[in-house]
Amino acid sequence: MKPSLTALTHLAFRINAVIDECPDFQFSYSEIHDAAEVGRLVDHLANRLRDKADLYLLTSDPDTLTGLEVALRDAAEALYGREGRKANIQKSGLCLVMAIILEAIQQQHAQRPQPPEPEPALVE
User: Fold this and answer.
1) pTM reported for the whole predicted model
2) Cβ–Cβ < 8 Å for 75, 104
């Protein structure tokens, strides 16, 4: 199930607020990648950030949560080992979460070019 753009941006806004309010809050890259790899990144964030970010809207609906977890897993896999080159980040686990969310948005909601329509045949 493809996650909605609303769900992905809701998560991004919540993570961005934590970055702003708690700049010293730390996640390791391995912690983020490990949670994403097993499809539990949102659940992990909800547990670790429970007093800093309300992720109830995302965690309360199993279909929404499943779609998010799959998309974030795929996005994290695409970024793994390339965080510095692709997302220009090197230190902050929360910035890694944001990069994963942005990658998921690109993967799930990018406009893909459509092949051109064939020219209609001329009737003579």
Assistant:
1) 0.87
2) yes
